[in-house]
Design brief:
InterPro entries: ABC_transp_permease. With 345 residues, the protein is mainly alpha-helical. 79% of the residues lie in helices and 1% in strands. The chain has a single domain (30-337), classed as ABC transporter involved in vitamin B12 uptake, BtuC. A two-stranded antiparallel sheet has the order 1-2.
């Protein structure tokens, strides 16, 4: 009797292990599989198949995700430590205008203009960091306010006129031409993604950032510098948004006063979708990039299939809502497992 009671759990555990592993793999790579399914669907759909699989469309999709991908990665850093930065898209607009203005209005060389554009993003990030990390203001309110303030400043400075004069050809070529069959900008995005992924997934900084996001009070008790990490996350977010702004200038061939702000929600949708993949329940860089691809490929397929103009907007909004719901549930479950594990230990 006792021997049977001992053996049965062991047998059930062995039998269940492959199923558990398969479930974990499906959860981790479900979004990747869904992306593959979307690609396959639009590749065979008669209304979109002719154009969807062409090299021109692939280049168009990859080129279009360059700015959104960097904005999504920028948003991951504050989210990882439990904060929001809704100003990333507006920051990229400011950086784009600053970069273009340095060349168009002040005749500065390209390299210095790029530095100024990225520097403008870092400056916005520093302001957010001081207000949120040092003065302890609500990040949601601060960054929403910043997202409203910055486009107004752009309109004041430019008088609503795009800055397209004097943009050097090398920058425009970087935004429009290809290298080894892929848009040049996507290579920069790949390098940035790799660096940010390593920083968040494989360094003490990244582990501490996630610890703050999981439980800031507990992190503070074990000596983790919560304020400094929050400050760094928001500053990095601003700097990455500044890089996105320079890419935006290259893609547009100048500083367009109404460009970039509408990229906030696709970027957020990508981040929250990404929290359901690769490292489920945790905001992560690779998941955000996969989420960006999923949204861009889906919108491209819908457009080529002849969907009405309102369909992509509805898709983006629905994807954001569903992604927030799923990522929130996964985060709660992950924290519950972590708490149970710490209790049993």
């Amino acid at each position: 009797m006792s021997e049977t009671s001992v053996r049965e759990p062991a047998t059930s555990r062995v039998a269940a292990a492959p199923g558990v592993r398969m479930g974990a793999l499906a959860e981790r790579y479900g979004l990747v599989l869904l992306l593959g399914g979307v690609v396959a669907f639009f590749s065979v759909l008669p209304a979109s198949s002719a154009a969807f699989t062409t090299g021109a469309n692939v280049q168009s999709v990859l080129g279009s995700i360059a700015v959104v991908s960097v904005l999504a990665v920028a948003a991951v850093f504050p989210l990882a430590c439990g904060q929001f930065d809704f100003s990333v898209a507006a920051t990229s607009l400011v950086s784009s205008i600053v970069c273009a203005a340095m060349m168009s209005n002040h005749d500065l060389p390209l390299a210095l203009a790029v530095v100024c554009g990225v520097g403008a993003g870092i400056l916005v990030g520093l302001v957010n960091a001081v207000l949120v990390a040092v003065l302890r203001l609500n990040a949601f309110i601060v960054t929403i306010g910043m997202a409203t303030l910055l486009p107004g400043l752009v309109q004041w400075y430019t008088h609503g006129v795009d800055l397209v004069r004097g943009i050097p050809r090398p920058l425009r070529d970087f935004g429009s031409l290809t290298w080894l069959g892929l848009p040049r900008v996507i290579w920069l995005v790949a390098v940035l993604t790799a660096v940010c992924w390593f920083a968040l997934a494989h360094t003490t900084f990244g582990r501490r950032l996630h610890a703050v996001g999981s439980n800031a009070s507990a992190a503070r008790l074990v000596g983790i510098p919560v304020t400094a990490l929050t400050f760094a996350a928001l500053t990095i977010s601003g700097g990455l948004a500044g890089v996105a702004g320079v890419i935006l200038t290259a893609r547009n061939g100048g500083g367009l006063v109404n460009s970039g702000v509408d990229l906030l929600f696709p970027a957020l949708a990508a981040v929250f979708l990404g929290a359901t993949a690769i490292d489920p329940g945790r905001y992560n860089v690779l998941g955000a990039v996969v989420g960006t691809l999923f949204v861009a490929v889906s919108v491209s397929g819908l457009t080529l299939a002849g969907a009405a103009e309102w369909v992509p907007a509805v898709f983006n909004g629905a994807a954001l809502i569903i992604a927030v719901a799923v990522s929130t549930l996964l985060t709660r479950r992950r924290r519950g497992h972590d708490a149970a594990g710490s209790t049993s230990s």
